[in-house]
Amino acid sequence: MSNQDTAVGFLTGLLLGASAGIVVGLLSAPASGQETRRRWRRRVEDEAEQLARKGRRAMDDASEAVGDGVEEGKRAVRKALRRT
After folding, report:
1. Run of H or E residues at 30
2. pTM score, two decimals?
3. Residue 40 vs residues 43, 48, 51, 66, 78: alpha-carbon distances, Å
4. How many Å from the N-terminal Cα to the C-terminal Cα in the chain?
5. Which phi and psi angles does 37 have, rounded to 5°?
6. Ramachandran category for residue 68: left, alpha or beta (phi over 0 → left; psi -120 to 50 → alpha)
């Protein structure tokens, strides 16, 4: 069995297990369907906002790192040009 087959089998099992857990959770939930959907929507919105904040922070960090690298490259070029 190849690594790809193993990975596909693992992911399939993971998705099936997660799906079963969600179904059982929804069926045994004490709240009404409407209330449960409202809670899920709110949670998804909160998670999306949090993910967006993390993404913006990562982009800012990456942008800063690129800017630092560009400045360092400019200094290295100037230094090399002075030697010639």
Report:
1. none
2. 0.48
3. 5, 12, 16, 38, 56
4. 60
5. -65, -40
6. alpha
